[in-house]
Amino acid sequence: MTYVITSACVDVKHKACAAECPVDCIYEGDRTMYINAEECVDCGACSLLCEVDAIFYDGDLPESERRFLGDNAAFFSEVLPGRTAALGAPGGALALGPIAADTPMVAALPARKL
């Protein structure tokens, strides 16, 4: 089980969740943030600080957001556009920095007007 970042984060990325994460498992994509399930310790700190209510425990995901469970996993397990290998579990987002890519699902979402 893990926490999942959903559509409310796309094109918003407040990043308070990443700053609070004690294991540095929240990675920044081009348009949204992603939680690495292999690194997450299920503490819930990210969910409490999310300013747009985009983070859910996977068992509590609204039906309309269920697709983001697989999509968060795909960010780490599949080769992203512009990259030569899958990210896997790099051991921390800060050292890696922002990733200038998103999953095909997120990349295909219409731009959010803020």
Q: How would you describe this structure to a colleague?
A:
The chain has helices at 16-20, 45-49, 67-77, 93-96, 104-108, and strands spanning 3-5, 26-28, 33-35, 55-57. It is globular and about 35 Å long. The termini are far apart. The chain is α+β, with helices and mostly antiparallel strands.
Short account of what is shown:
26% of the residues lie in helices and 11% in strands. The protein contains five helices and four strands; from the N terminus they run βαββαβααα.
What is this structure's SSE topology?
Blueprint: E1 3-5, H1 16-20, E2 26-28, E3 33-35, H2 45-49, E4 55-57, H3 67-77, H4 93-96, H5 104-108
Antiparallel strand pairs: 1-4, 2-3
Largest sheet: 2 strands, antiparallel
Distance between the terminal alpha carbons, to the nearest Å?
32 Å
Strand line-up of the largest beta sheet: 1-4
Average the pLDDT over all residues and give the rounded result: 94
Shape call: globular
Query: Number of helical runs?
Result: 5
Estimated radius of gyration: 13 Å
N-to-C SSE series? EHEEHEHHH
- In percent, how much strand structure appears in the residues? 5-15%
Let me know the number of strands.
4
Q: Decide which structural class fits the backbone.
A: alpha+beta
Helix content: 25-40%
Unreliable runs, pLDDT <50, ≥5 residues?
none
Structural descriptors:
114 residues; alpha+beta; two-stranded antiparallel ribbon; 11% strand
